[in-house]
Specification:
618 residues, Calcium-transporting ATPase, cytoplasmic transduction domain A, Rossmann fold, Calcium-transporting ATPase, cytoplasmic domain N, 7-stranded mixed sheet, 6-stranded antiparallel sheet, 19% strand, elongated
């Protein structure tokens, strides 16, 4: 609880004690016998309501006349003027309780996002000439060596050059399971180092680091309001002066024109003003969106504004880039088909032949072998452009490559039909078998696509520069509805433009990608999702929502959060306006009293705020 909230709570407690004493005095019939007893009510009224006076005064000076503070003042002062001292004090007292509750709710919602600010390390351990010096992360240059001790927060993006440890990434990704890092692995700022001391070389300046980009996104999120928020703001600006004028007419017209008692209609006007206070709308709606953004951030999903959260709730189509989004972007051996030898022997010979190549396919074969490469047995190695490699192992000629290589060397091979890349292997003029290498589909891709559709998205589309056979195979395995293959980056933009034309105004299209060539498409889509932890800076900058750990299942989470947020926001709007309208009518006809008016204001506000706080639940 903040200092201001504590002060308000103390004032509420003091007022409650005095108010209770006045109620007891009134019950036993003493209060009426005290001359000028209005003073006894004005003391607690001043204690609980002086800040409302100050706010109203400052707002009037600033030209913002019609707000809830002025409504409370007019209503309570008018109640005192007609002798309703208890009701006037009760309205201000309960209003302040509602304000405290609202302040607490907003603070809790804000904390769900501002907790991200704790990701910034206050210092970096700079390693220079064998000595460690504590410096500000701002002062560390790219290429410098830093030391991260157990329990310390990683201050800058870097690559590990010495040591191994477990790194807690939960503050960034929402995942509780620590990740092991070894020499050569990247570590990102904002994570917490676990058990081991590590040395790392800085790869990005502080202003370009992951944690700085996250904080910038969070700080700017509140500037981009949803259409519903903007509507409520505009509505309140018209609504508040309209109901104030209406209350004045209620107080004047019946007594002046129709001859009704002035006191009675002044009381009805006061009741009307209390009921009409727009607090429930102007607080609960933004709070609902803020809670939604906070709920997303706890899951490692950074939403750049409530307008994007609202847009996600209307998603009809989600378009995915394939490599790095639906697949891991890593080539791996997925099948070994041996011919007249064991699979182990086939992969060993192929690994030796490919060991001198830096090609991704060669690396995937040597990684799959996993054993020690004896370079002494390899001679006369050379690459055959567009075909494969040739090498002599223990004096025997080995060929590893595509069908062209087999045909050009008159090797009788068995062709393999698959969506992956096939490496055929021949040893001493004889065909040994084939190795299938594929870009591995992410483990949760099929489940994630299914969840996205369960959340109301009608169509999932995949774009890729790969061959159509590869794309079709991936699509069939994970449940993609449409495939566009063999595309250049500009082709992807054209496809998205075409899909956007097919959407109506009420439906939205999202694109999810991670590469630098995805930035133009991310910008063009209604909502752009960047897969953040391995995503390029350009993609993250262009996107509207960043998934920090590249889990496409969190796209489904975002859709679910956005639709729950919009459902809560709409519930609050309908509930608040509905209750207020009913009680307003009852108040005008003299059926509703001041206590029912207080419920229509403070009670409705508290219920709407409680409803919005559902978004803060994990």
């Amino acid at each position: 609880m903040t200092k201001k909230q504590k002060q308000t709570l103390i004032r509420i407690i003091i007022t409650a004690v005095l108010f209770f004493a006045l109620l007891v005095l009134g019950y036993v019939g003493i209060i009426e016998k005290i001359p000028y007893n209005i003073v006894l009510y004005l003391i607690p009224y001043a204690i609980i309501g002086y800040d409302i006076f100050l706010k109203a005064f400052h707002n009037i000076k600033g030209g913002d006349i019609f707000d809830e503070n002025l409504l409370m003042l007019i209503a309570t002062i008018a109640a005192f003027a007609i002798g309703e001292y208890t009701e006037g004090l009760a309205v201000m007292f309960l209003y302040q309780i509602g304000e405290l509750f609202q302040s607490y709710a907003v603070g809790k919602s804000r904390n769900s996002i501002s907790s991200l600010m704790d990701m910034v390390s206050e210092y970096a351990n700079l390693y220079v000439d064998g000595e460690i010096e504590k410096v500000s992360p701002d002062d560390v240059e790219v290429g410098s060596i830093i030391v991260i001790k157990p329990g310390e927060r990683v201050p800058l993006d870097a690559v590990v050059i010495d040591g191994t440890s477990m790194v807690d990434t939960s503050s960034l990704t929402g995942e509780s399971v620590p990740r092991r890092v070894n020499v050569g692995d990247d570590i990102i700022s904002g994570c917490i180092n676990g058990s081991g001391t590590i040395k790392a070389q800085v790869t990005k300046s502080f202003e370009n680091s992951t944690v700085s980009r996250i904080l910038e996104l969070v700080e700017n999120a509140s500037d981009k309001k949803a259409k519903t928020e903007n509507f409520i703001t505009r509505f309140a600006r018209v609504y508040t002066p309209a109901v104030t004028i209406a209350a004045v007419l209620v107080a004047i017209i019946p007594p002046v024109i129709l001859g009704y008692p002035f006191d009675e209609w002044l009381e009805r006007a006061c009741i009307f003003l209390v009921i009409s206070c727009p607090c429930a709308l102007v607080i609960s709606v933004p709070l609902g969106f803020f809670g939604g953004i906070g709920a997303a951030s706890r899951r490692g999903i950074l939403v750049k504004g409530s307008n994007y959260l609202e847009a996600v709730s209307k998603l009809d189509t989600v378009v995915f880039d394939k490599t790095g989004t639906l697949t891991k972007g890593e080539f791996k051996v997925t099948e070994i088909i041996a011919n007249d030898c064991s699979k182990e022997k086939l992969i060993e010979i192929a690994a030796h032949a490919e060991s001198l190549s830096n090609h991704p396919i060669a690396n995937s074969i040597t990684n799959s072998f996993g054993g020690e490469i004896n370079s002494d047995v390899i001679t006369d190695y050379h690459e055959i452009a567009g075909n494969g490699v040739e090498a002599f192992i223990d004096g025997k000629r080995v060929l590893c490559g595509n069908e062209k290589l087999m045909k050009s060397n008159s090797i009788q091979y068995k062709s393999v039909m698959t969506s992956g890349t096939v490496v055929y292997v021949a040893y001493d003029g004889k065909f040994l078998g084939s190795i299938v290498i594929s870009d591995v589909i992410k483990e949760n891709a099929k489940e994630s696509i299914s969840r996205i559709k369960q959340n109301g998205v009608k169509k999932c589309v995949m774009l890729t520069g790969d061959h159509k056979s590869v794309a079709d195979d991936v699509a069939s395995k994970i449940g993609i509805d449409e495939v566009y293959a063999e595309l250049l980056p500009l082709d992807k933009v054209e496809v998205v433009e075409k899909l956007l034309k097919d959407e109506n105004d009420d439906n939205k299209l999202a694109f999810a990608g991670d590469g630098i060539n995805d930035a133009p498409v991310l910008s063009r889509a209604d909502v752009g999702f960047a897969m953040g932890s391995i995503g390029s800076d350009a993609a993250i900058e262009a996107a509207d929502i960043v998934i920090m750990d590249d889990d496409i299942g969190k796209i489904a989470d975002t859709v679910s959060i956005s639709r729950k947020t919009m459902r809560i926001v709409k519930e609050n709007i309908v509930f608040a306006l509905g209750v207020k309208a009913i009680v307003m009518v009852l108040g005008v006809f003299g059926i509703a009293n001041m206590w029912l008016a207080v419920f229509a204001d403070v009670g409705v506000s508290v219920i709407a705020i409680l409803n919005s706080m559902r978004m803060l639940k994990k």
